[in-house]
């Protein structure tokens, strides 16, 4: 039986008259020698005291987990004890005897209440409820219900001998009552008897099919459901709701020959079969099962005298640095691997069950509370380096090449991992952040090859440059920064603020970009480690991984886009992203690889249909994987696909690749145009040209005006014959061009029949230079046209423009 609550100790007894107490790692901590076989044992509600009764003894043995000492309590009973159970909520211990007598011991007050004649024969089973009511069953075929003073409140007869008694709550429509008011007990190994204290005159007797065999065991779970195991290997689930009583909700025959015991774990949901464990050496049969309260460890005893302990789930503790990952693979074991480089995994035995794990390029750190243990990952194996105590309980640790940074209680301590190996100045060995006069709390931190980066509750993100041992950058956000995730170089960083909004921050230009469609449930972010995909990162929660791309150089400026989402299996924690392959850690301590749905084009393209190829082409263009997109266009041989690739290259300012694509599809004109501009270094000017080629003229104008050659905007509008825009630009950029543009605009207006405005622009085109003065013939033609259309005021204007009006 496992210690309640913490599950640190396991008490085991067999036919050798000894109770042995092991810790959760299998080390024997104590033993209790008994005069005969152990009859019963139980831990109190807090797991502090183990109580044991044995044959040939009137004493109750009490082992204290805190002091590791055993004491004996005289029961005062003259007859042999047969039953023992601690209360669920109080410090009461109930002990029954073979003659039906009862003792209730209050450990808090040391008071013993003997109750003679509670039953007329041996007390065989019993249970406490959360109201400190005690139900008992005996060979006299009776159930009694008593309070903590031993007074009988209820009793009811049974048809046969009871066994395996439990208190629980029946499933009803009325959810106002949360008390455990129903006693369930196996009667004669054939029926399950349900006795509701609120309805003592209406007990329920559930009978099952003969072919199931005897009831071996049962367990309540969930919302009023009971799982029942039978001797012929069948187990069924029934509901205790009055409308469903007697109906089997679920049935399975997972055990071919027989079923020995069922033990449910309240932490888990009942679903499909999760695992089958075969114990080939146990040819004499199995004994009993016991879970820890957290469902992490399952102990099994056998008839051969063996004890098996299975680890059913682990804390998901893991870390990654570059392409190296470390994760907890057993309670006292961490495995370090580099799946990308193909290095064989290294298993490291650690001294404590860690609360945190961190890995660097050459080191591993594990720890709990305020201590961390450091290990060197050398070519000749792993060596324990040192342990270190911090000034508070450590929340997390980050490592890189030479330094470690620990976050504890709003502070970060940066220190050398191997101070004795580096000829370091004393001041560069360690430093505590923030400074004493800085009244902020650090909420998150990260370490790259060059920088310690941290975020605070005042919304500040600080960059500390380790080589120069000084701050080089800070950014102030309106609200506190909860989490930060820098890319491998530290030149870009994703941060999540207290509103659960996500942003990409670029310290080079101090710019932030909001991440679109950012889920408030996001737990973490990983950047792509594949060198060719620098702008790709994923954000993950418990159910899904979202792929984002930071497009730094586009004609529309820098922005973040959502490329797609990928479902992740239950209890998978992403550790590493490399070329679209996501390495995750599972609850069992194993590693599992998932391919992102946004990177499906990395699979073989041999049998892929055209429609699927077009979808993959869209994926590659979002991820800027132009070489992969080229391969798909080559397979598709579709002019529209080549054009889509070419436009994407222009959008991302990949001029050389765009030239290559346009040359392939025979677009000579744009190839020549691109050849002329490919050497331009002015970002805005180049982007303006490319925006013009994609027919986004308004954007092109804005980019030209922001460039070193703003007059290019005027030239573009003139070439496009956008005369209104050209005139507006000419006023600002080249006033001497206004007459020429006006003349061209007048010609266009004259051609469309808008003579009034045409005349006005012709007038603006007069420079006093004979080259552009309207000749007499043209004026006469205008007068003739205007006369015939009855526009006399305009005729007057024309007459007045002659030398002799």
From TrEMBL:
GO biological process: cilium assembly; intracellular protein localization; intraciliary retrograde transport
Localization (cell): Cell projection, Cilium
Residue ranges annotated for the WDR19 first beta-propeller domain, each copy included: 2-267
Pfam families: Beta-prop_WDR19_1st (PF23389), Beta-prop_WDR19_2nd (PF15911), TPR_IF140-IFT172 (PF24762)
Keywords: Cell projection, Cilium, Cilium biogenesis/degradation, Membrane, Repeat, TPR repeat, Transmembrane, Transmembrane helix, WD repeat
InterPro entries: Beta-prop_WDR19_1st, TPR_IF140/IFT172/WDR19, WD40/YVTN_repeat-like_dom_sf, WD40_repeat_dom_sf, WD40_rpt, WDR19/dyf-2, WDR19_WD40_rpt
Location of the WDR19 WD40 repeat domain: 325-599
Membrane-traversing stretches: 781-802
GO cellular component: cilium; intraciliary transport particle A
UniProt entry tagged with the keyword Electron transport: no
Domain IF140/IFT172/WDR19 TPR: start-end pairs: 626-768
UniProt-recorded name of the protein: WD repeat domain 19
